[in-house]
Amino acid sequence: MRRRARAVVPFSAGVLLGVALFGLVPELAGELGWTISLLLFAGGYGLLLLLNRYYPVCPTCTHDHDHNSCSTELHGFAGPLIAAAALHSFLDGWSIATVQLAVPLGLRVAVPLAVALHKVPEGIALGGILRAAVKTRGAALGWCALAEGTTLAGGALGLLMAPHLGTRWITYPLGITAGWLFYLGYHAVHEEWRSRGARPAFVSALAGIAGAAAIQRGAEALFG
Q: Where in the sequence is the domain holding 96, given as residue range(s)?
């Protein structure tokens, strides 16, 4: 299971990179201009970089986590990890909701798919780490489901706020979203590069980037 999950990590990271760089950023630049778009992008990246200095925001893309030693007892690690994962998942849901309201069809399909693909290795890694930090498998599963389930809360809140805030506001959280999607994708690829070598990491990541581009353009051609 661990080997299978690790094979998905760089591919899902590539999908995130493709969505951020070739979907969200160009779309935002057309709406807001490159200067504001890049500032929002940097703000989103910097936000997760700052959070990650204190708590690991994403288990699959944290530099100082050894995935091969998840069986080691991690006393006191569960609380901060659950809080960080819940916040990260909430932002994932918010991203999906905002994308559905204002961007082209290709991105409305690609962003939820990218997040879903990223959730697979992330959830497995989160569950493995929590199993080493709590006493039972049931507790690990429950806390993992709770942390990942805040994705639904973020999406619901994003959809509820949209009618009251209008459509212009959507572009700004989308810019931040692009930054943190890039953060998650880049650090996941870099961690795989360090642990498995450049070729398996970059081949899978490039396949994910190409897949993201194909999904966006394919959806636009099919339904546009």
A: 2-223
